[in-house]
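Notebook entry, cofactor series.
This is the third protein in the set we're modelling with a bound small molecule. For this one the ligand is zinc ion. I'm keeping the input format identical across the series so the outputs can be compared line by line later. Sequence and SMILES below, as received.
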Amino acid sequence: MLTVNAYGATSATEPLAPMTVERRDLGPHDVLIDIKFAGICHSDIHTARGEWGGTAYPVVPGHEIAGVVAEVGSEVTKHSVGDRVGVGCMVDSCGECVNCQAGEEQYCLKGNIGTYNAVGKDGQPTQGGYSTHVVVTEAFVLRIPDGLELDVAAPLLCAGVTLFSPLNHWGAGPGKRVAIVGLGGLGHMGVKIAHAMGAEVTVLSQSLKKQEDGLRLGADHYYATSDPDTFTQLAGSFDLIVNTVSANIDLDAYLGMLAVNGTLVEVGAPENPMTVAAFSLIPNRRSIAGSMIGGIPETQQMLDFCAEHNLGAEIEVISADKINEAYERVVASDVRYRFVIDTSTLS
Ligand SMILES: [Zn+2]
Ligand SMILES: [Zn+2]
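Returned structure with ligand:
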C-alpha cells in the first residue's frame, strides 16, 4: 500500500481539506501514475456535497487526471515508465459484456467503475485525482500525445470526451450545422472540437457576455437564448444541438431549431424531468438523445484529435488550498473555462 497526499471531503457540509488515501500495491496489469494536474468538474462538486445522493465519505474527487507513469506492473505492455498519461471518469469495467467488448465501457452492463466514489475490483473504495498518485489498470490509462501540455490536457479526460463523443457519433463535420448550448467547461470544448471537425458552429448562450470568447474559440455565430427572436430566427436550422446546460430548458423551443432528421443531445444533467410535446419531434423527424462520456478507444481518439488540432482546454491553474474557492466560482459560473489543480501543491 502506498499512502499518498490528497484533498477531499469528509462530509457533505464540510469544506474539502487535506487528507491521505491508500493506493493499492501494483498488480501485474496496474500502472502507478504520478499525477501532475487534475481538473475540477461540476460532478466533483455534486459528489463532494452529496447532491446526487450515495456519496461515501471520505471522498477524494477528480476524474480529469493527467500525469506521468512512475511504475508499471510485471505484465503491463501498453505503458512504460515516463509515459505521459491520463485517466478520465472510469478506472475499470467488467471487460466481458457486449458494450465493453465494443469499447463502450462507459455503458458496461454491470456498470463501469468510477474513478472516485465507487468500489474497485479489489473491494476498496476508489479515490480520485485530487491526489499525488493513483493506481489504475493499464486498459483504462490513456496516452497523452506529446503535442498536448498536461495541464490543458487534464480537462479533456471528462469535458473533452463528453463533447467529442456526441459530435463524433452524430457526424459533426463539413456541411453540418452544429449548435452548442452553454459556453462553460463542457461547451467551450464543444465549440473547439466541432470547429476543428469542420462543422459550422453556433453558440446558444443565455446572454452575449461571452460572445467574443465564443468566436475566438471557433464559433461562427453566437446567439442569446434570453432573446425570444433567437428561436424564430434559427427555426429549423441545425443538424445537431448539444445541450451542456444542467438546468431545465424549454425542450420544445430548442427542438424547433432542428432541421429535418436533426438531433438534440443532452449531456447536461438537470435534476428534474423535462417535458416534450410529440409535435416538436414529429414534423421534422427529429430526435432527442443523450450521451455519456466516451469509451476508452474513443477517449484515445479524442486525445489524438485534440493533439493534432492543438486543442487544449482554456484553464486557470490553482493550488490545492484554493479548491473550495474554486468550487464556489464554478457554481457561480465564474471560470473561463476550467480550474485545474497543480497537484505538486498537495505535499
Ligand atoms: Zn466530469
Ligand atoms: Zn462490461
